[in-house]
Every structure is written in structure tokens, then in C-alpha cells.
Amino acid sequence: MKNCLLLLACVMIIGTTYSQKISTPLELSGFKTLTSHQQMINYIKSLPRDKSPFLTEDFAVSATGMKIPVLKFSTGEFGNDEKKLKVLLFAQQHGNEPSGKEGVLMLLSKFASGELSHLLQKLDLAIIPMMNPDGNNSDKRRNGNGADLNRDHLILLQPENQGLHKFFNKYLFEVSMDVHEYGPFSRDWMELGYRKNSNVTAGILTNINTPQAIRTYSRTKYFPWLTAQMKKSGYSFSEYTPGGPPEIEYIRQSTFDINDGRQSIGSLGALSFIQEGMNGRDSIDNIEVRAKVK
Ligand SMILES: [Zn+2]
After folding, report:
1. Do residues 100 and 130 make contact, with C-beta atoms less than 8 angstroms apart?
2. C-alpha of residue 162 to centroid of ligand 1, in Å
3. Residue 239 sits in a domain of what CATH number?
4. In angstroms, what is the span from residue 36 Cα to ligand 1's centroid?
5. pTM score, two decimals?
6. Of 14, 74, 176, 271, which sits most exposed with the smallest number of CB within 10 A?
7. Which helix (H) or strand (E) covers residue 85, if one does?
């Protein structure tokens, strides 16, 4: 009898653990195959909603006609509780930078399993795993119109960005993060014996048309906190610093253009960031680490 009870307890523990682990398409492939647009749609449909309630909405249709979903997590009516911070997270504007999407799908698993449900006491959280399904499915930077989505946030010519900004304006999010990857293996750097080597880099608002108070807060409060968190995590981290190798070009403290996702949304009053993780030699190279670090 005692053994039976022990066995039953073991089965319950294993069963509980098993039911809590929700694998993404990338994890199910053994980190061998990147998640396609259709796989992502099927995966989102399969997520349980009891522990972290969410609604989905197709906020845009891509240049080639693919629906682009956003998941709106809230324990109440999304966007209607003034005590909660409204946060927007969007990934993969550039199709050949897939680890943001893969990391975000892992994040969705954690919400669905209840691991992160406590955050919804303080946040209403909107998550867009894949801004550019055309680029995702063709492993290209640009969308089906050949446009760079992250240079289109001012004139909004592309349907993906028209949908994003309409969605943003509906809720006026207070915090926003745009997730990308940078290339560590460019030839001009390698020829001079350099390579960029941070697992994660992050950039804050830098354009002068964004609110000074938010820029100052980001620099003096957010960045020290983020740097400490990344040190604890064991991943290498630095501020997002684009530019050429030292002998040829200067290294800039971030980019400044108002037409990218981070700055344009920042100009609308949000505490807005960009994250640039390290890309690989190709889109699948080292994807397990690249996705998990997100
Ligand atoms: Zn990018």
C-alpha cells in the first residue's frame, strides 16, 4: 500500500511536470528547424489559456497575404485597468533574424504553463512573435514588397507597420520592446581581427524627437538595472553599438533614425527599447542558445 501511494505520488509529480512543459515547434524539432508562419499559428492555437488568459487578434496582413497575430494577455479587460502597465513586445521585423521569434514562442510557453502568470497582476502584455512572416518564410530581411520594415515606421507604407501603429494607437502602450539580431561575423571586422561578441545588446531611445525624460530615465535607471540582470544571467551583454571596425569607421552609440520601430514608438511617449541578440553564421546556427538568451 505504501509503495502504491509512493508510485501514485511519483506519477502525479511527473504528470504535473509533463503537463506544465509546453514545447515550441523549434524545441520539438530538436533545435533543427526554424518555426514557419503556419507552425506558429498552430502552436498559438494549441496553447492553454486557463493559467494566463489571452485573446488573439490579427492586427495586420503581410504583403503576401499572411495574417499576423498579436496575443493580448490580461486577467481582465485588456488595456482597461489604469493600475496596470501596458507593455508591447514585438519580434522579427527582419525575417533573417529569427531567434527573437523563437525566444518569444518559448516565453509564450512559460505564460501558458503558469510560470509567469504572476506578472499579469501588474501588466497587460501584448506579444507579437512574428512581425514579418514573408521574410520569415523566405529567410530574408525584407517583406514580400522588398521593404525593410524597420525603416518604414514614419511613413508607414507597409501593411505590417500600418497594422502595428494602429494597434499601438488603440492602447497607447507605456513600454515597448523591439527584438532583433546583429551579425557578429562581418568580413571587414574579421579581416582586422575583430568580431562583435555579446550574446545580447540593447539600445535605448537616442533620437532627439523622443522625450528627454524617458531618455534620461532609460540611461540612469533602466540600463544599470539591465546590465546587472544580464551579469547575473551569465550571458555577455553590452549596449547596442553599431558601426565599423576601429581603423575604418567609428563605433556609434546606437542608431538614431526616427523611422525605426524603437524610436518612432518612443516619439509617441513610450519607454521604448531595442534588443539585438547575436545572430549566427546562418539563421539556424547556434539557434538553441540564441533563442534561450532572448
Ligand atoms: Zn533587425
Report:
1. no
2. 18
3. 3.40.630.10
4. 18
5. 0.91
6. 14
7. strand 85-91
**94 C-alpha vs ligand 1 centroid, how far in Å?**
5
Distance CA 252, CA 244 (A): 9
**259 C-beta neighbours (distance < 10 Å), count:** 16
Tell me the per-residue pLDDT of 227-284, one tens digit each, with 9 for 90 and over.
999 999 989 999 998 887 777 777 887 888 999 999 999 999 999 999 999 998 889 9
Residues 79-114: pLDDT tens digits? 999 999 999 999 999 999 999 999 999 999 999 999
What total number of domains does the chain contain? Answer: 1
Tell me the pLDDT tens digit for each residue of 134-152: 999 999 999 999 999 999 9
If you measure from the C-alpha of residue 180 to the centroid of ligand 1, how many angstroms do you get, rounded to a whole number? Answer: 4
Protein residues near ligand 1, an ion, with CB under 5 A? 94, 97, 180
Q: Is residue 183 part of a domain?
A: yes
> Measured in angstroms, how far is the CA atom of residue 277 from the centroid of ligand 1?
9
Q: What is the whole-number distance in angstroms between the Cα of residue 163 and the centre of ligand 1? A: 19
Q: Is residue 31 part of a domain?
A: no
Tell me, in angstroms, the distance from the centre of ligand 1 to residue 97's CA. 6
Mind listing the pLDDT tens digit for each residue in 170-224?
999 999 999 999 988 877 778 888 878 899 999 999 999 999 999 999 999 999 9
Residue 181 CA to ligand 1 centre (angstroms): 5
Query: Does any domain span residue 95?
Result: yes
In a domain, 22, yes or no: no
Output the CA 200–ligand 1 centroid distance in Å: 13
132 secondary structure, DSSP code: -
For the chain, the first-to-last Cα distance in angstroms comes to 47
- What is the span of the domain harbouring residue 172? 36-293
